[in-house]
Amino acid sequence: MHGAHEVLQAIAVVLCVAAVTTVLFQKLRQPVVLGYILAGLVVGPYVPIPLVANPEVVTTLSELGVILLMFSLGLEFSLRKLFAVGFTAGLTAVVQCTIMVWLGFVVGRAFGWTSLESIFVGALIAISSTTIIAKVFDDQGIRGRLRELVVGVLIVEDLIAVLLMATLTAVSTGTGLSLGELSLTTGRLVAFLVGLVVVGLFTIPRAMRYVVRLNRPETTLVASVGICFAVALLAQAFGYSVALGAFLAGSLVAESGEEKVVEHLVAPVKDIFAAIFFVSVGMLINPALILEHWVAILVLTAVVIGGKLLGVALGAFLTGNGTRTSVQAGMSLAQIGEFSFIIAALGLSLKATRDFIYPVAVAVSAITTLTTPMLIKLSGPTATWVDRKLPKPLQTFATLYGTWVERLREAPRRETLGAGVRRLIRLLVLDAALLVALVIGTSLAAGKVAAAVEARTGLGQELAKNLIIAGAVLLSVPFLVGVVSLARRLGTVLAEVALPLRTDGKVDLAAAPRRLLVVTLQVVTIIIIGVPVVAITQPFMRGATGPLVILALLVALGVSFWRGATNLHGHVRAGAQVIVAALAAQSHSKEPGAEEHALDDVPRLLPGLGEPVPVRLEDASPAVGRTLAQLNLRGLTGATVLAIQRGEESVSVPTAQEVLRAGDVLALTGTHEAVEAAKGLLSPTPPPPGPLEASGAPA
What we know:
Blueprint: H1 4-27, H2 32-43, H3 55-75, H4 79-110, H5 115-124, H6 130-140, H7 145-173, H8 179-213, H9 217-237, H10 242-254, H11 259-283, H12 287-292, H13 294-318, H14 323-332, H15 338-349, H16 357-389, H17 392-410, H18 413-416, H19 419-457, H20 461-498, H21 511-537, H22 545-587, H23 602-605, E1 613-616, H24 628-631, H25 633-637, E2 640-646, E3 649-652, E4 665-669, H26 672-682, H27 691-694
Antiparallel strand pairs: 1-4, 2-3, 2-4
């Protein structure tokens, strides 16, 4: 126990130094989290400054900060919000997190760290910082589609982090990584979560609504914090982290619909103890350990920035967000933060990691926190540069792919999630689960089985083990083939929903786009299934067998994809001639509104080209006198110009050097949001806040 004097002294030293450092960081326009960490370094035991706080007292108080911080994050998460952010953010978060867990494990093993330490490193670099991103987005005034996507990914990442912590706790406190023990601890975890959520949904939301109706803020505050600590204590009693319990408590309170009221009341209390938590993080920084492991810190920093950029951008693009938004989202999420500290602290408390992991995690977080504002500011120009450097077939594909995904989303739910699609998804998950079980089971049991074979037959143990592994490889082939074939069948079904087959016996002009969409959806499915399988099985496999198998599949599909993209580019050039003819016909029409409806029949004739829209350039349009390259319409909005009607002249698939003139009629295609953004950019008056801000485009 600590005396009252020790507690008072620790609080006074911590908060006074933290106040000074955070004021300094506010003046420097840097995240205050870095100020707290610096304060921890100042009052910690490793820096010779005569301002030392009792580490044990601060650590005890910081536990309250962890609980309240996780409770507040839980308040931002509810089942309703998860459904609202939807498919895009969920798949993006899953792809990104599994890539980062795998990369972290590989880096850890490369530096000679234990398998369990490497798993913790993978988990702590997988989760981005909600606190830091929210602050930078507010400072830079980023709103719209980009903010919605990033916040959605963060919500799903928070949920993944909680599941990772629960799983890591179960694995670290078990009797090893045996399949039986792992299954038992996982079953207990699921039973605990289900039981707590079911009982909690019946009691906590109703109780909170009743308390809030009393209209007594202090009563609401006491009741909500009481629920937070009670559920955290319950989780600890069942052998799980208090962070998990606090997060679930916040989520259950959020289901009451009064989360804004509770969040407002809890915020000051949370800020105080969260400050102490971040200071406690800084107190654990040992400059000597950081100097000793500076190479690992730099490598992990590069992995965080590069891996998250590529992982998020890939996931966001494949779910239909376009090149610009995807690149910007990837650059926005390229950091780690509060969850990383919590996961690193969990590893220390469970004695699953050595002391150096925590300061390494803090150092990586500090560096990536400093780089985040710059990366977000540079994300717009970077996205423009990436778009310009893409080969022509990929530029065409990037524009049209968004329209196909949009049509898929807008299709009736019974078509996109019909019985056939659900069956294919279940079979894919089953094949993946059996493949994982086969790999893990072989890894854990091969040694014992080989020893038994040697005892009975006299066959060498190493030879017996190699034969067992070879047999497992042969058994895995049907599952791999099943995943690939099921992915193609799923892609075919969904592609036919987005681009229906012709049933009237006429030429199917959507065949080329549909073939490319099938291959793309097959790639998406293999990534969504394959990356988690690789991440889960990597600790049980030798070398890079899993990644090489996935890479080989993607390379084979990549060849087919490139052929399809090249054919699509030719298809678009041919389709542009149809659009030119339609625009020319309307230019000779005397009927009012003919220009507005000139391309109405194009989606029916050429369903793979989206829904082209004619836009006439007024004399005062900012686009007049500029080339398409200077205007950068596709880079800024995601829409592309298929054709231009200019008096008696027509230009199909114009080049980047085409100069736009007053009176030109441009045929634009892209998603509805992209076309509206392009219209705003081409209009004589500045566009109102909306789609352009959504993509973070500069004014």
